[in-house]
Amino acid sequence: MAKLINELPAIHRESGLVNVVVDTPKGSRNKYKLDEKSGQWRLSKVLPQGAAFPFDFGFVPSTAADDGDPIDVLLVADEPAFTGCVAPGRLIGVLEGEQTEKGETIRNDRLVAVVETPYNPPRYKSLDDMDKPMLDEIEHFFTAYNQAEGRTFKPLGRRGPDRANELLKQAIERGKRK
Q1: Which residues contact 175 (CB under 8 A, 6 or more apart)?
Q2: Quick check: 31 and 47 in contact, CB under 8 A?
Q3: What is the mean pLDDT of the chain?
Q4: How many other CB atoms sit within 10 Å of the CB of residue 11?
Q5: DSSP string for residues in 37-53
Q6: Beta bridge pairs of residue 101
Q7: Which one, 2, 150, 154, 159, has the greatest CB density within 10 A?
Q8: Can you say whether residue 95 is alpha, beta or left, with left for phi > 0 and alpha for psi between -120 and 50 degrees?
Q9: Any bridge partners for residue 11, and if so which?
Q10: Out of 2-6, 69-73, 89-93, which region has the weakest mean confidence (pLDDT)?
Q11: 154 membership: H or E segment, kind and range
């Protein structure tokens, strides 16, 4: 019997890669969210004209970030996946950030992963391998995206795969307690 997406393990047992559940495909203005109770995908919001997700965006199942939701992942790939797709990802870093809404500030880091399959070796091993202007644009996207929602997103730093894996382990532990 098939498992519900939110019941999948964070790490694929055979490959050791991260299970990334895509909720919003690259290039989409529509932001989707999984309704965990029904297992259905729901349209959460439509981004303003001119704004679109720079890469696939989603989460790692069986985890909990500081905000209580599954930990966020930006999945770098050449082509968009589809909503609900579970993609094998290798963590290459994290965009650390704080999000402030209604006077309350929380950490809202964004893990960054690349697609990896036996036929698709990753192009990047670390955020250091990516162009700085591309990373600047991604951070700007998250800043503008949150601003349009009445929140403030403040980038705090860019860290490599070791830090990303450490944050994932913490999120897996929080997910077990949830």
Answers
A1: 10, 62, 63, 64, 70
A2: yes
A3: 94
A4: 15
A5: TTTEEEEEEEPPTT---
A6: 104
A7: 159
A8: beta
A9: 18
A10: 2-6
A11: strand 152-159
Beta bridge partners of 34: 41
Q: Report how far residue 58's alpha carbon sits from residue 36's, in angstroms, rounded to the nearest whole number.
A: 14
For 94-131, write each residue's pLDDT tens digit. 999 999 999 999 999 999 999 999 999 999 999 999 99
User: What does the DSSP assignment read for 71-126?
Assistant: PEEEEE-SS---TT-EEEEEEEEEEEEEEEETTEEEE--EEEEEE-BTTB--S-SS
pTM of the model: 0.94
pLDDT at 2 over 90: no
| 152 in Cβ contact with 54 (< 8 Å) | no
Structure tokens at 4: 């519900």
Tokens read off for 117: 């399959």
pLDDT at 90 over 50: yes
- Which residue from 97, 96, 98, 53 is spatially nearest to 76, judged by alpha carbons? 53
Query: What percent of the chain is predicted at pLDDT more than 90?
Result: 87
Question: From the centroid of its chain, how far is CA 97?
Answer: 13
Instruction: State both tokens at 124.
Output: 């990047």
Using CA atoms, how far residue 24 sits from 14, 57, 98, 119, 130, in Å, is 26, 5, 21, 24, 22
